[in-house]
UniProtKB/TrEMBL annotation:
<feature type="domain" description="Spindle pole body-associated protein Vik1/Cik1 microtubule binding">
    <location>
        <begin position="241"/>
        <end position="379"/>
    </location>
</feature>
<dbReference type="GO" id="GO:0008017">
    <property type="term" value="F:microtubule binding"/>
</dbReference>
<dbReference type="Pfam" id="PF16796">
    <property type="entry name" value="Microtub_bd"/>
</dbReference>
<protein>
    <recommendedName>
        <fullName>Spindle pole body-associated protein Vik1/Cik1 microtubule binding domain-containing protein</fullName>
    </recommendedName>
</protein>
<keyword id="KW-0175">Coiled coil</keyword>
<feature type="coiled-coil region">
    <location>
        <begin position="163"/>
        <end position="218"/>
    </location>
</feature>
<dbReference type="InterPro" id="IPR031852">
    <property type="entry name" value="Vik1/Cik1_MT-bd"/>
</dbReference>
Amino acid sequence: MELEYQLNRRVAMCRKVTVQCERFEDGMNHCSEQLTSIEEEFKSTEEKLKVDFANDKSLLEEKFAESINEMSSNYNHELMELEKITAKDELEVEMNRLRKDLIDLLEDCDTLKLSNEKAVAQKGKTLAEEFEQHKLEKNSSLELLITNYKQSMDEKISLLNDTAQLRQQNSEMEKRLNDLEKEIAQITSEIDKAVSEKEAIENEKLNIEKNIEEETDKMNKLILFTKENEGKYNDWYNTVEYELSKRKKLENSIDELKGKVRCFGYISGEVQDKLSIDYIEGTIVHNTTPEENRSFHFTRILPSNALPLPQLLFREYKPFHDLCLSEAQDFNLFTVSNGPWSELQFHFMEFLKHEYCDNFEITVQNVFLSDEKISKDLLIPRDSSSKSCITVQIESNLLILNTRELSLKDYLSFMNSEKNKTPYNVKNGINLYKLKFQSREDPSAKTVNFHLVQFEDLTLLSVLQEHLISPRFVSKTSHIGLLITKLLHHLKSCFFFNLDDCMDDGHLLPTLNFASDIGKIPNPKKPEPTSKTSSMR
């Protein structure tokens, strides 16, 4: 139907274009007739003006001749009258008078002749101007008609081309219509076949609807059964969560009994495919050479796809944190990554806020320490011009900083401000947090000091490894190396390694070596009294 409609529409357009072509031909014929009549009228007008000019000229000449003849006759008559006079004196007087009159008459004749010539010239000029003006008007009309004639011819040619295209499209449409008629016949046969198949499908549909009703009844019964047993399932879930919590506490107790620094490796699914990992034993096998494979041991290796950072902190780290707080022992958390680990920092502060702010008054100090750059108090606004000296002291296993101190809530507000959202560049240094936990229920209880140390430059690992593993063979003394050695040897510690960041630039093997060496360092059972003061600027 759509094709037939389009075909009829094209036929109507062809007819309309044909009628327009005929109208344009009639208009052009009419223009030609008008052009011919104008040319004839122009010629007749020109001849008429010439005739009028000749008539006016002959009329003036006749009037002039009549005037001359009349004056000549009067002169002859007077001359004859004078000839009749006999007196000599009177005759001479009369002849002089007549001569004078003749001279005046001749002057008047010349004047009249000049005025007549001027009038004739003026009339001829006027007629010539009128003729030129009439000629210009007729020429402009003629040019306009010629322009219209050319435009009409162009439109005629365009319409003829459109007509030819429409005729070609019409023939194509007729061919397409024949093909469509064949396709319609084929589709009609397929429809008949589909109708017969539809009956079979409807019968099958009835059977399916019957099965759906049966399955719906079963599902409703299952929903009813589920509602009746929901309380039992919730009890089972709570039991599983409780057992899982007990298991994590037991694992933490086992780690505590081992007495070693806890090392957790955090790794994503993409990196898992590139390494040989044993999650049960907590080991990573690395091809150090084509002939040798080395195993590197961690306390636990945690896949990020199975354990996001919030769950990592709650399930794996929280038992260690709670143990240190319950024993009122100062402790450390070290994070190792190749660049800012902003996600862990954010989730860790949120973890402290939700888990401990109700029971503890928590304050925060945050500094950047470096052997090569100027150390900086990171809690001073970035637009501040303050350049005070940062002093770090360790007295009786207590780290003392002379920097700005904020409550945890104020610290979170400070870090969320627009000026401080961008992470500070800690290249060639460490990002050190000192947090104090003071019990709200018992203000007289001992304040527990917690240190969060972020290594975001893996080039520092070799310096730290020298101070920790081979302090006698240190090539160059590092204040940071001495500080970390004191913290590790006198306070309980836990390490998080972001192994995803270590895959590039050949950092994986040095990081695994460092983690393996750290995991062999024993945690101190009791704080040992010592005193050490150092200054970093």
